[in-house]
Amino acid sequence: MKQIPVYLFTGFLEAGKTKFIQETLEDPRFNSGERTLLLLCEEGEMEYEPDKFAKGNVFLEVIEDEGDLQPDTLQALYDKHRADRVMVEYNGMWMLDSLYQRMPEAWVVAQEFLFADANTFVSYNANMRQFVYDKLRSCELVVFNRCGPAVDRMELHKIVRAASRRADIAYEAPDGKVEYDEIEDPLPFDLDAPVVDIKDEDYALFYSDLSADMGKYSGKTVRYKGMAVKSPRLAEDTFVFGRQLMTCCANDIQFTGLVCRWPEARTLAKGEWVTVTATIAIKWHRGYGRKGPVLTATHVEHAEPPEQPVATFY
To answer: Residue 314 pLDDT more than 70?
Structure first.
């Protein structure tokens, strides 16, 4: 089956999506005559100027309602224009799963970009975190436009990195000059220490970094606070040690824990808060059904719950 490349542009109203798509279609390096279906899922103040990129090969179609994102509808539009590729200017108030789950089978997202006004992004994140995180988690590039000298780039950087450690970040000044983010992301704990102390507020980052790169934690001794959870599927000397974690919003809170071995595990009460010092080994365990981080505890002591029991990235 021939794969159809989809170029996805996300962001909120007046974020600069239309301007970028217009300039992209004017660029002969991108638009050299391929038949392009351009799906508009929202209409802002700026309108397209087809005469500047018109080669008779770009076909605009409007998707007014999120419910119209259906495989048959999208395929019909693609077939109507006998397109070679698809560009989507997506509505920032629609969740991306509405598109991902309903794209025709042959459609494959080739690139995904997020555009944001540097002056309003922090406010969007504070008031509509669910929609912001939804767009950040899978994009390859975040472009902050209207990024003047008064903008706190570190604050923008931290919001992006809380959702994605792989996305590139670009800052576009009002005069059009673009600078790419070069802020380093050192971990807030010392992996070279004899005992790596994980603060309560750093659990989410620790768990995320461990999940992404288990190898660098192999053989490390860590100490942090969490809840002990017993499972009938595990041996008497084994429990699951971790915390509730909120990635985006209250709806996605889930328990994230690691298999932990300790000879006195049977003495732990369900949900008891403890501070554990343990060595990490990366090996197969039936608790995961695959290779994963297995803790061997050397010290376990009762602890009071952290000030913020649910761990977050921000």
So the answer is: no
Could you give the residue range(s) of every CATH 2.40.50.140 domain in the chain?
A: 196-312
The average confidence (pLDDT) of the chain is 93
- Confirm if 114 and 90 have CB atoms less than 8 A apart: no
Residue type at 95 in one-letter notation: M
Asked if 8 and 88 touch (Cβ cutoff 8 Å), the reply is yes
Q: What was the pLDDT predicted at 247?
A: 74
- The Cα–Cα gap between 237 and 231 comes to 11
Indicate the class that CATH gives domain 4-180.
alpha beta
Q: Where in the chain is the domain with CATH 3.40.50.300?
A: 4-180
Distance of CA 15 to the CA centre of its chain: 19
Q: Give bridge partners of residue 37 from the DSSP assignment.
A: 59, 86
Helix orientation angle between 153-163 and 129-136, rounded to the nearest 10 degrees: 70
111: amino acid identity, one letter: Q
- Nearest CA to 90 out of 35, 158, 138 is that of 138
In angstroms, the CA 176 to CA 157 distance is 20
Topology of domain 196-312, CATH: OB fold (Dihydrolipoamide Acetyltransferase, E2P) (2.40.50)
Judge residue 125's burial from the number of C-beta atoms within 10 Å of its C-beta, 0-12 exposed, 13-18 middle, 19 or more buried: buried
Contacts of 96 (CB under 8 A, 6+ apart): 10, 90, 134, 135, 138
Contact 257, 228 (CB under 8 A): no
DSSP 26: H
